[in-house]
Amino acid sequence: MSSVSLIERRLLKWNKLSSLLPKPIEPLLLPIEHVNKLLKICADSSYLRIGESIHAHFIVRNQSSRAEDVFQINSLINFYMKCRKTVRARKVFDSMPERNVVSWSALMKGYQDSGFDLEVLKLFKSMSFSGESQPNEFVATVVLKSCSNSRRIEEGKQFHGCFLKSGLVSHEFVRNSLVYMYSSSSGTGEAIRILDDLPCYDLLAFNSALSGYLEYGAIKEGFDVLRRMAIEDSVWDDFTYMSCLRLCSNLRDLELARQIHSRILRAGFKWDVVVRGALINMYGKCGQVLYAQRVYDDTHAQNIVLNTSIMDAYFQNQCFEEALNFFAKKMETKEVLPNEFTFAVLLNSIAELSLLKHGGLLHGLVVKSGFRNHVMVGNALVNMYAKSGSIEDARKAFSFMTFRDIITWNTMIGGLTHHGLGREALEAFDKMMIAGEIPNHITFISILQACSHIGFVEQGLYYFNQLMKQFGVQPDLRHYTCIVRLLSKAGLFREAEDFMKTAPIEWDVVAWRSLLNACYVRRNYRLGKRVGKFAIEMYPKDSGMYILLSNIHAKSKEWEDVARVRSLMKKRRVKKEPGVSWIGIRNQTHVFLSDEKRHPEIVLIYVKVKEVLSKIRPLGYSPDVAGVFHDVDEEQRENSLSHHSEKLAVAYGLMKTPENSPLYVTKNVRICDDCHSAIKLISRLSNRLIVVRDSNRFHHFQDGQCSCCDYW
Ligand SMILES: [Zn+2]
Ligand SMILES: [Zn+2]
After folding, report:
1. pLDDT in tens, 468-487
2. What's the total number of domains in the chain?
3. pTM given for the model
4. What whole-number distance in Å separates Cα of residue 433 and Cα of residue 427?
5. Separation of 679 CA from ligand 2 center, angstroms?
């Protein structure tokens, strides 16, 4: 065979083989509709990388800069907004040669979803001004929702007029957005007027009004809407039922709650976890922890949402220990992995019980579980430390927080005030202003109390008369009472009386008790007797008034009047709330009543009290028997004084904890004068910090002094 024919044969074979090989790949040329679809998938699933490649693909093929490319450019805006890349979306929008209404609405919706509601309103104004496109119902809905979110009712009214002119208001979605805007931003009857003008009953519009009023806190209006919905006798949807449960929780109306519950049952409503959680929450708020428990027990698939709901129901009904025990039980069986809500409920329960040690342990668990940076958990930590007596740890928890909201600031300022740190509270208030947080009515209560603690009368009046107005905070009874306290504590009794006479408010027992207490502490016995006489007639069931009046008579050595007040109290069957104090020692809480007999170590405790009291006598302690509320002889009076619950708790703490370690005691009612002066001296004698939380505030006893400066 010649060499030529060999080559020919090989070539032939090669050609045969190569025909079987796949053809070389052409550059990818997907039709534009397919690319747009792909971009939508990227937007919905936040596939940033792939979406960016598509954008690059558009640029290479010059498909994103011509007027006819508006469709895919709009898709790009939508994609970047869904991936939370607002700046890039804006760049794409700004470089568009021509825009249509979809371009505008995509950008607005994106801004709204990212929480930039003011930007939405600005964009809408530029859109109207440029005249590029006319708003459609989608744009109108977005704009009105942003007005609701940012509570810009005045601008909302202008837009309402604008949509009225263009006829968009007749569109169902726009109308419902209007209803929601008016109800959620102003709580006024405007939303109801729109409902009145409806051609026929519309469930969605009524739902919008109901949830809007609830959002605003206009409970009465919300209830009116619900009543009208009940009269219509139409079918309700999930949304209606959830709003109803919320309404019942707010109203704390058990009867209504049960009616709604039975309506849910009759409607054969789908029982999902959210509804059950809402039901448990509702019964908890209505004070029916047993009903809440029953709903919980009926649920087969229990999860963290329901577990937290039932713990919260315990918390709402002051069953703090039950909430903690429930959690401990679930932790043991590993049935529960706590979330941020669980931690908040637990920490707040611990705060109410002042269990500093348990709080510290839970703090460790928070850190381990990775919830430390959650605002709600951070707030609960600050609250727990402040209420458990360690304001220093509260401050640390506060400074550790990356994000803070109004509750964070209020908790910190309130905590400082409760600990009598008025100056620090006012400093924190200044920092809050610098941080741009807007104070609310709770902030001002703390601030006025802080002023009262440190005797800043002028500043307090400035906050009350000027600053509250500037921030649009309407003063209520609590603020007015703070002013009575501020003036009377400073000894300005005439001003306090004038204020009480002229203030446009109906005073309650707390205000009168504050004034009477000031008379007692500031030794204005003349006014005290006048106020006390009036107060026990006005509030004949309030034991505190009798005790204060009796103490005032005792201080003036008017023993007959003391006897008269006491017999009046007996005749009217007014009982003094028994004093209870507790102290936590090594994971156990020890509770003491006055004249306690049941504690296993009570004999030793009495010996300790006697020993300590005899040691502080040379330091200046003399029992203040004037305040003792029993008709007994001198020796018995002293005995009864020395067996006060807070003295027993402190003595037990001295017995059971290492030298120099701080003691934290909690008392259910106001600490009495005698215990106050005794504990001051005990703090010096034992060289310890003793923190007592009573019903009013915290007392930090150290080196013979108390942080309250003897006024509480
Ligand atoms: Zn006492
Ligand atoms: Zn004190």
Report:
1. 999 989 999 999 999 999 99
2. 3
3. 0.76
4. 10
5. 9
